[in-house]
Amino acid sequence: MNIAFIPIDNRPVCYTLPVQIASDNIKLLVPEREWLGNLNKIADIEKIFEWLENLEMVDAFVISLDTIAYGGLIPSRRSPDTFETIKTRTEKLKSIIKKQKADVYAFSSVMRISNNNVNEEEKEYWNKWGKKIFDYSQNCHKSGRESCISNLIPSEILDDYLATRKRNFEINKIYLEWEKEGFFKTLVFSKDDCAEYGFNVQEARELERLGGYVKTGADEIPLTLLARAMNGKMKIAPVFLSPDNKHLISNYEDISIEQSVNSQIELAGCEISDEKNADIILYVNNFEERQGEIVMKIPTIPFSSKWEKPEKPYMIADVRYANGADNQFVKQLFENSCDENFFGYSGWNTSANTLGSLICTAKAKFLFNGDIKKLQAVRLLDDWAYQANVRQMLEKPDITKLKKFMKPYEEKVFSFLKIKYNVDYKFPWNRLFEVEIELN
């Protein structure tokens, strides 16, 4: 089948991961990477429109609507464009896609409110006023009226922020109208901030009241929608390695890990099953007290039980830590031989990120019998070798040191998967948060 896919931006997990997941039986059509946005530039929206207009016939579209509306997820918080300018873009997108008569799977973000004074992904004034704006948002929601904190924020900054929020919210309401018209096969509103109170929480609830589907997460949602767009069913049996703790809530999320697992399975168009009747077992290496986070130096109890691979297909969601593998579990994984029953490992960033990408990988392999070893080498080198280990050895992006430190991990990964590649590394956004791994 032919699927046209518009990513959020050009990060490896957003651009190259879906291409790696797509098997020979899925023709994934994507815009040129250079047309997509990054940390400091917006997408070339006109180039993407030109690409869309010249597409061959497709069976489905998977679209990050923020890319067309604002130039990307990060630009959605920064863009100075007017409501009318953005509305015109979205209407052009709608008119182009309607000609194809294909299924449309799309998502749009509910604008987040970060609880800090870091402006790397926000407007410039966030480095001074971000925390105060966050507090203002929370207090307004709690009290039901304007907070006195507004007196501490310059009026021109607060007015700009509130106008940007209102603009984005009104655009989301337009998408809801399209959904009622039947334009979308599936429409998701993503919320990647899990605070209990705030303008974003209020907006998410209002979208739900109006009939919208809101999901905690962001970067994985295009992958979950890609899985949903694949023709075919797959029955998944979730098995929690710490079953007494599946009610606990992951970092950056507002639902239990069990609810997160179930919602990802269902949004991917798969069925929750018991082990006996399942096509594949999903092992969830969940946390026992709280989810750890290696980079933030938040400890947790590592996996200490005995794990043995089953005799039927399986995949592994390693969510004991946010953004990085559990070394104790990976050690046991490597003690087992890798065979055709291995349908994937993932442990990147949030629990939702891990689950969405993993289920998409497994569904592609299950339906189309693709070879995922190269993809799994990338995931193990990224999620385990880099995020859980080598990243802690670096003070800044340094390719020379990175290659040196990654060497022993490469040998272990290639030995487990019974493959061998030359490896190249990049820091695509010139920061330690993400690394790009190319196997040649």
The averaged pLDDT comes out at 96
**What overall geometry do the principal axes of the alpha carbons give?**
globular
Helix content: 40-55%
Q: Please report the total strand number as a whole number.
A: 13
Topology as H/E string? Answer: EHEHEHHHEHHEHEHEHEEEHEHHHEE
- The share of residues in extended strands comes to 5-15%
Please identify the top-level CATH class of the largest domain.
Answer: Alpha Beta
Low-confidence regions? none
Radius of gyration (Å) = 21 Å
Number of helices: 14
User: Which structural class do the helices and strands define?
Assistant: alpha/beta
Strand arrangement within the widest β-sheet reads 2-1-3-4-5-6
In CATH, the topology of the largest domain is named Rossmann fold
Domain count: 2
- Span between termini: 27 Å
CATH architecture assignment of the largest domain:
3-Layer(aba) Sandwich
Largest sheet: 6 strands, parallel
Q: Can you tag this structure with a few keywords?
A:
14 helices; five-stranded parallel sheet; alpha/beta; 440 residues; Rossmann fold
Care to describe what's here?
This protein has a 6-stranded parallel β-sheet, with helices on both faces. The protein has a 5-stranded parallel β-sheet with strand order 8-7-9-10-11. A two-stranded antiparallel sheet has the order 12-13. The chain has helices spanning 12-21, 45-53, 65-69, 75-78, 83-98, 126-143, 155-181, 199-209, 221-229, 257-267, 327-335, 351-368, 373-386, 399-417, and strands spanning 2-6, 27-29, 60-64, 103-109, 186-191, 214-216, 235-240, 271-272, 280-285, 314-318, 342-346, 423-426, 436-439. The chain is 41% helix and 14% strand. The longest helix is centred in the middle third of the chain and has 27 residues, at 155-181. The model has no long low-confidence stretch (mean pLDDT 96). The protein starts with a strand and ends with a strand. The protein has 2 domains: 2-225, Rossmann fold (3-Layer(aba) Sandwich), CATH 3.40.50; 232-439, no CATH class. It is of the alpha/beta class and 440 residues long. The chain is built from 14 helices and 13 strands.
